[in-house]
Fold this protein.
Amino acid sequence: MSVLIAAAALPCGLLIGLLLGALGGGGSVLAVPALVYLMGQSPHEATAGALVVVAVGAVSGLLCHARAGRVRWAAGATFGALGTAGSFAGSRWSAALDPGGLMAAFSVLMLVVAAGMVTRGTRKSERADAEAGSEAGSENQSEDGSKNRSENGSETTAKESPPRAHPARLRDAVCLREATRLRQAVRRSLGRPTGPHISRTSPAPRPRPLRTIVTASAVGLLTGFFGVGGGFVVVPALTLVLGLEMPVAVGTSLLVILINSGVALATRAGTGSLDWPLLATLAACAAVGSHLGNRLAGHLRPRTLTTSFAALVAVLALAMAATTVTGL
């Protein structure tokens, strides 16, 4: 590994890790173009080497989420095991594909990632604005109510005070509130929805084996073919198919990504040589950058960061597509 390549690996790894830590995913899609255009790797070597960066990032993130109790080990292991066949097939197909065609397909994937990031950021901002509006409305209502009570205080003192609730009823209300809180805690530990719309008899989502197998295989195929983690696909899949809450789905997705990337890397082990010193440097810098990104996440505006990242990915995708078409 030359000095110039090592110098390029340091900022690229830090940038990938920063994006992974600040956004929770998506940064690994930059590993392939960085390895190809800045470090002189072939497309097949880059898609294989990117799996090392993905696996290291998944391990570091998985440990953090596991300590917080946001990983469902059984569900993640099952989903990842079901995707091993797709990961194996994707690795074989990627190795047999022409390098130009592989980079053209990867540029299309980057455009899809950019569009998905913008859409997700817009939905989050709209949801945050709606919650802020509802909180502001409740505060105004409480202020108006307290003002009316203060203005009519002299009138209410002259009237009879409202009857006090019976001690038994108060005790029953407290017991009901504590039971509801305990039930929500149990559902949260099981990865089930805990909103106010959940009733005591609400059924759990029905398991659909065929849908789960197809989705897991598609996720594994994506990881094996392109050498990316695919968190932008895994998280919605775990939410919709297995009914996990979003924080739990994010933590569990890292286990799925680790299994799929490990299988894909093992499949590609005999197809070519990897520059392990370069990949180790890139992965180590990505791990450091991920730690810094987690610290910076609370000090940055998520929508601005997401939009900037999506714009960067879109520009890189268009540049890759233009270069590939020119080469063809």
In short: The first helix runs from residue 3 to 23. Confidence is low (pLDDT under 50) at residues 154-160, 196-203. The chain is about 80% helix and 0% strand. The two ends are 29 Å apart (CA to CA).
